[in-house]
Amino acid sequence: MRIATIALQILLALFVSSASAQNEEAWQKSATADQLELVSIVQAYQRQQSELLQRLREIKEPLEQLKAMRSDVTTAETASVLIAFEAKRPGTDCGLLALRQVVMLTTQSNVEEAKSARKEAFRRLIDYANHPLVTSAISSIEAGGIDPEAIACLRGLMIQPQATPELKDFSQLQLSIRLTEPKFEAYFHRRRIAELDSGAQPKFVGEKQLHTERLAELPADELLQQYEAQGIELLKRLAQSESNVYLPRFRRIDDMGTLLEVEARETASDSLAEQAKRQLFQLAHLRPTKSAPELEVELIDGKSWSLAEQIEAGRVVIVHFSLKGCRPCEAMYPTFRKLHTQYGDRLAILAVMNDSDRNKTVDAVESGKITWSVMWDGRPGKVARQWGVTHFPTAWVIDRNGTIVDYNIGTVPLEEKIATLIDASTERSR
């Protein structure tokens, strides 16, 4: 799961580095010596990552690629340089932004020096509790797994006397997410291991080993339950506070985004209390074994569609989020068409289209690519925001009792899952 994330980060760094070479002169004219030095450190690291990417291309097995990335010493070396850079500039914008880079760069590293630098970066971040850029660093903490240093930092920021209301509430929100997500992560690893054990085709050599190792890195189930309960309690407190705190918005000074400045309040986004309510909604209704939320929408043909009515009719339901022109989304369409034809009235499929222009959704339907129920949600769509959709395609499978059965599964497991659910419901109705 994280192999693609890391590779994308490297490719993005290369793209941005290329763009920076053409556009960097404008900001450099007014840059300070510290800003220039910090950007230079990050640029040097990106060049090293470019060389690493070339070496990784020679490694055919993704699992071995991941191991090579996690053991790369250049990350540890750069993190140490950034820690030393901050030590000479404590309390400054550049000092904080250097710590932000350490947090981002060391997320996946297994090198002890990188881990030590990450721990030190989190320790020092607490000293920036009243700094206007500190939420940019907190936002850089990657979700997934239990990161003790990150959790300790977030807890520390929540109780710092000099911390702003924005920082305290945002730290509480981020901490709650990092406490509730690992249980969900464990579910995904177990699900994929079970699929592979049942004969599913591995996506790459060593896939089962990767999921097994990732699962072993997570705490025991009892601890995961405790962490989730703690996270839910934090979310409830924030949601009930009715806090109208909004996060500031940041503007890139350089093309890479190494340097940032506060631009304005993002008042168009949800308040932190509203975000907490949405997280609670997703935990309560959109995780496997949970009762699906009510969903009533108007289809593009003007008809109404209700999840409750589909369940009342005894149908298994697929709700998927898509975009016109999204290749991974459209790669799922033949499977949806096949299932729609095969099971007819026993299966309901709803496409929630998040195209910015309604006409794009209409075109997708008129082209014949989508032959099942379709609603236009817009972008950012109300339903997508409520359901926490951040990438496409995203899909949920709901059984005829209205229970979330699965989430984001591939085409082959999806067909098998639907067949099992419909066969089971057919047997019960006899």
UniProtKB/TrEMBL annotation:
CDD domains: TlpA_like_family. Residues 286-427 form the Thioredoxin domain. Keywords: Signal. The keyword Repeat does not apply. It comes from the Bacteria. Coiled coil: none annotated. SUPFAM superfamilies: Thioredoxin-like. Residues 1-21 form the signal peptide. Gene3D superfamilies: Glutaredoxin. GO terms for molecular function: antioxidant activity; oxidoreductase activity. The keyword Signal applies. This is Thioredoxin domain-containing protein. It comes from Blastopirellula marina.
